[in-house]
Design a protein that fits this description.
Elements: E1 2-6, H1 11-22, E2 26-31, H2 39-49, E3 55-59, H3 65-75, E4 79-82, H4 91-94, H5 96-116, E5 121-127, H6 151-170, E6 174-179, E7 182-183, H7 192-201, E8 205-208, E9 215-216, E10 219-220, H8 221-231, E11 254-259, E12 265-266, H9 267-278, E13 283-286, H10 302-308, H11 316-335
Parallel strand pairs: 1-2, 1-4, 2-3, 4-5, 5-6, 6-11, 7-10, 8-13
Antiparallel strand pairs: 9-12
Helix pairs in contact: 1-2, 1-8, 3-5, 5-6, 7-9, 7-11, 9-11
């Protein structure tokens, strides 16, 4: 089968492209290689998968309407896994237009490409951030998500609405996946696992927001990839009997799922896991909550388990040991390049 994977130089996209190549599929990966964080990390990720004969990389911005339209017309993809986006809750406060261009215009170009080229299934990245001010735990795809606390979250909710309209109007099967705090080797430098590990190993203090009174449903990269690979084979069907009362399904060929570990981890427990993995104690600077942040996330994954028979279950101690080991090895290699 022929796939388009957007964000192929990004954290999740890189692992998904690798898995599809290992399964023997033909994969075209695209990325604009922007400088939101060090492009060298993105290039190093690409080096992991360019040896596959069934992988092709094309540098392009998903907001390039003409370029994306031509790509779809030329390549005739059967399925699309759309993971490219401007990421980060905090950066959306500083640079909102980057999110409009990538997450809204970019989503529209991908939807148009799928529509005009009869793509069989579009799987796209949403985010746990859509739950915003929701205080009911665990977060369920049956919950209303109408009160985002960041523009990033608003764009991800908008992606779900855009997908539903295309599913309804053009019979395009779409599946949105709300990822919960993805971490692991090759992870993003702007996220807590990388920031904390980097600071601890280099004897700098870490910023502990909300005075440590936070919880996150940390989800290991291998579990995220397994969920994506399984769900892309479950193509939503139009269902005239659907009462349209659930936010996560519809009469249209449309679905939304959470992918999380179903086990919120206290921030201080997370820090302890890094300390153990690195063999060093963190210097902690306790600070108030940041704008756009939420005190806790917790994924209800019952519908995912029912649909694909899979539940993420990697323990934070194992996952952070894998991350710290990778971080040390990666930076050792970088220092001699």
């Amino acid at each position: 089968m022929k796939y388009l994977v957007t964000g192929a130089a990004g954290f999740i996209g890189n692992f998904v492209a690798e898995k599809l190549c290992e399964q023997g599929h033909t994969v075209v990966g695209i990325d604009n290689l922007n400088d939101y964080y060090d492009p060298n990390l993105k290039l190093a990720r690409l080096e992991r998968i360019t040896h596959f004969d069934n992988f092709t990389f094309i540098k392009i911005d998903i907001a390039d309407r003409d370029g994306i339209a031509k790509l779809f017309a030329d390549e005739k993809f059967e399925r699309v896994i759309h993971l490219a986006a401007q990421a980060g809750v905090r950066y959306s406060i500083e640079n909102p237009m980057a999110y409009i261009d990538s997450n809204l215009v970019g989503m529209a170009t991908i939807l148009e490409g799928c529509r005009h080229n009869k793509v069989q299934h579009l799987v796209y990245a949403s985010s746990s951030s859509v739950y915003g001010m929701n205080e009911k735990m665990p977060f369920s795809t049956e919950d209303a998500v109408d009160h985002p606390v960041s523009l990033y979250a608003a764009t991800k909710k908008s992606n779900e609405l855009m997908a539903h309209s295309y599913s309804h109007l053009y019979d395009l099967p779409t599946t949105g996946l709300r990822f919960f705090t993805v971490y692991g080797p090759w992870g993003r430098p702007d996220m807590a696992p990388f920031l904390f590990t980097d600071a601890i190993l280099n004897d700098r203090e870490i910023k502990v927001f909300n005075h440590g009174k936070m919880k996150r449903d940390f989800t290991y990269i291998d579990d995220i990839v397994e969920g994506i690979i399984r769900i892309q084979d479950v193509v939503p069907q139009r269902n005239a009997e659907n009462p349209n009362t659930s936010p996560s399904s519809s009469k249209a060929p449309y679905k939304v799922f959470n992918i999380g570990n179903n086990e919120p981890i206290a921030l201080m427990t997370f820090i302890e896991a890094i300390e153990k993995a690195s063999g060093k104690e963190a210097k902690k600077n306790f600070l108030p909550m940041q704008p756009g942040d939420v005190p806790a996330t917790f994924a209800d994954i019952d519908s995912l388990k029912e649909e694909v028979g899979f539940k993420p279950d990697t323990k934070i101690e194992y996952g952070m040991q894998q991350f710290v080991d990778w971080y040390i090895a990666y930076n050792s290699m970088a220092s001699i390049r």
